[in-house]
Amino acid sequence: MGVAVVLLAALVAVSLGSTSIPPLTAVQILVSHIPGVDIVQDWPRSWDTILWQLRLPRILLAGLVGGALAISGATYQGLFRNPLADPYLIGVASGAGLGATVVLVAGLTAFGVGTGLLPVAAFVGAIAAVSVAYLVARRSEGLPLTTLILAGVAVSALCGAVGSLLMLRSDPDLRPLLSWLLGGLITAQWKHSWFILAYLVPGALVLLAYGRVLNVMQLDEERARQLGVNVERTKLVLIAAASLCTAAAVAFTGLIGFVGLVAPHVVRLLWGNDHRMLLPMAGLVGAAFLILADLAARTIISPAELPVGVVTAFCGAPFFLYLLMRHKARM
Amino acid sequence: MLEIRDVHFSYNGLPVLRGLSLSVGPGELVGVVGPNGAGKTTLLRLIAGVLAPSSGHVLVSGLDLRSVRPAERARMVAAVPQSAQVPRGFSVLDVVLMGRNPHLGLLQWEGKRDLQIAASAMEQMGIAGLAERQATELSGGEQQRVVVAMALAQEAPVLLLDEPTSNLDLAHQQRVMELVREMCRERDGAVMVSMHDLTLAGQSCDRLVMLAEGRVWAEGVPGEVLTAESIRKVYGVDVVVAQHPQSGGPVVLPAATH
User: Fold this and answer.
1) Is the ipTM above a cut-off of 0.95?
2) Cβ contact (<8 Å) for A227 and B90?
3) What angle do CA A182, A187, A188 make, to 5 degrees?
4) pTM score of the predicted model
5) Do A226 and B49 make contact, defined as CB atoms within 8 angstroms?
């Protein structure tokens, strides 16, 4: 059912835009791209270009990024046993931001390689920030998760400060950085999706395999240990897999907020906390949510575009506030 | 079946257990008593494998627990911790099935056999009718029984219970201890229970171990361990030990102050 929702969202997103294409024709155009299939082309050639080179790569990227953020968010919420955790909790976002800033400030765009280097730098920055937080928090007897969160906050603050300093000390055109920070899918290309898939497929498979273990971790660390869970190894595996998925997702599309926070909670409300259900469903809900949010971003004020982060925040922030109120009532 | 050999343990440099040895045989129910800070909980956590001894050995069926993998250890020792909380968003059956974790591979789902084992554990604890309820919606006593059922579903030959009666009313205290006795007989397992209520401990257990300052102070049948003298020395309080009018077992009463 979740898969059907994603496909439906994708179909709607394929059809709508500055040029509307009837859904049936859209499907025909897509099918015509399958090698060996011959369909009489009774649609304008431009439709083919719009669909195959603009909309479809963008929808695929939106789906993958939304799915990666949501499944990582669900993992962090489960691991930290904190419903307000999101995939940026322990430094991915600020590390990626610093990486992107360094590339722009160093003027690497001037050589015409900036657009290619920015995602790489963002990815490396994200992984570096999480690694620093992890290494700082680690003790010989294990990894205290509260310390990891605090270390993540400190590393984030430091990355932010260094980034601001770099921006003040130099005079580059900051618009690409700003649009990256707001998050967006406007530059989507097929190859971006392949890069994300290279991390998301193994990462998500690992996370899905740990579904039952994550359930047991909901008891508390001590009882998880008594039930035979290798708690420290589980933490390392989950943090590594979720961080890699998130870093790959933010590298091209920047910091898209609220998907990783909201999608898991929608699933929790509907199907409960069994992570064997929660993780895959959160991934699908996140994918559908970001596909539709991006559709809204590119159609609402067409021909101009909204940053997709504005749309996800506009839908996600009120929901987040609702969650906070609910939790206050419970405590 | 369970053997503890000269175990030492320090926490932040402070010795908690100082050379403690004892053993529990199959089908035996042993109560661990002693004042706060005597090392009861630490001892149980060491046996459960949550803590590692600084020196000495914990053996189950002759196997040193430090030499086995976590899942294998969890198939040998099940433990019910003191504050038994259930996680949010899971049914009672879901929680009890978590006890099957050490028997399942990473990608394996619970099968028919696991469901049967969980069902009989819930039956034993009298919560079979609550299987589909959300665990967090139950009363404190019911939640405690869910957690015990989870440990039963683990099907380990050694079962540890840390103050299983602390949050229960009189009727449930008796009921839980009766169940613990039944379990012990039926499964022929080694059961170790830490308790504060000396009279209830004496009534329920085959043998008592009294700890003081990280060592075994007294050990034996309840009548031998629960004497006014040993309690005065270990707890530093004056008591009267009377005889139960029906069973003849020891009943510990505070001494009259005037």
Assistant:
1) no
2) no
3) 110
4) 0.88
5) yes
